[in-house]
Specification:
Helix content: 40-55%
CATH topology: Glycosyltransferase
Number of strands: 9
Structural class: mainly alpha
Largest sheet: 3 strands, antiparallel
CATH architecture: Alpha/alpha barrel
CATH class: Mainly Alpha
Number of domains: 1
Distance between the termini: 14 Å
Order of helices and strands: HEHHEHHHHHHHHEHHEEEEHHHHEEH
Oligomer: single chain
Strand content: under 5%
Number of helices: 18
Amino acid sequence: MSQALIDQARKVMEGNDRGSYTVPTHGLYPFQWNWDSALSALGFSHFDMDRAWVEIETLMAHQWDDGMVPHIVFHEPDDGYFPGPEVWQTGRPVPTTGITQPAVAGFALRKLYDRAEDKAVARARLTKLLPKVHAWHQWFYRDRDPENTGLVAIIHPWESGRDNSVDWDEGLDAVPIEGVAPFTRRDTTHANPDHRPSDEQYKCYIWLVEHFRGLGWDNPKLHDASPFRLVDPGFNGILTRSCDDVADLADVLGNLSIASEARAMATKGREALESLWNPALGQYTCYNRVTGRLQDTPSVGGLLAAVADVPHARAEALARRIGLLAERCGYLVPSHDPANDAFDSQRYWRGPTWLIVNYMIAEGLARSGQTEMAKRIHANSLHLIEKSGFAEYYDPISGEPCGGSSFTWTAAMVIEILKNLKVAA
């Protein structure tokens, strides 16, 4: 069964391969997405290492001069997605959006290098890529952490990768939607509208895009100019882990300057994560930088911070928290606590289970000694695939497939789990 699943997953990835980049799935997402690509590279690395490197090379080729790596690259015209380049108007030679996404590229590069059989070739490619990834991390701490706290803020829900999470409800309350230009959504023509963000949320998303566009996408100004500034523990955990990985890779290349700076970033970021610990919930939670308040929303973002090699006591607490969630759902890890009133089992990031998040949480827990919970999460992930195929995400109660189908990063995670990780029966 394991090889059969790997073969099926490979077919999904190859079906979404556009030569130098992958699309997440046909129709619903017809372009290159930032963290999708970096995580998809992990799947490619098990059967086509050159293609894995190309995926990240293509993404980083569209980095902005200031270091920011956009969340979408619009390689080819496609009117099946909204908002397209005509809305973003970022003025790039190849159109991109003007916001970013979780910084998983450094994490992925470390995996690719470690797996490379020809280290000389890997070092040559790494020599070109690593300074770009490091520049992206520098950009985060320069433009999204202006007070030098060690934690960066997102200024649009789409940057988190968890677009409509309950974590953003309070922040979106501060976003005015008057004057938003009329628009027609495309996502609801490809997927069940009941699985997607609401129209009111979309108005907020588009208002923010129009607001930043009006400021000329001037990154040093956007943080303070945004009415939405949320410090997400999962987002920061990924950034911290990627800084660690960049530091280790810089050591391999003998680049002591990048190694030293990246390691200092990681150390400061990991220490600062402690300010997001919510003892009442036994997990990390988001901080609203606009209101100055630590939120109480029990989302998967606070569990995803485990990827940052958090202190062992915190990892143990996160494992207990996930154990509690397991009593409330059929399939780990729900993106929101089923016991919370805001839980919605099929609406995108307000409840459903996602394999990419499962993978990163389990990876972090295993490194912190919580191996049994990591195995349990992987087993749940594979049960979902066997039950419901390679969906975008899943109902954590029933296991029903939701969102898009034949999804690239879901397939990549299946290959990653089966090739590398032990699974609890």
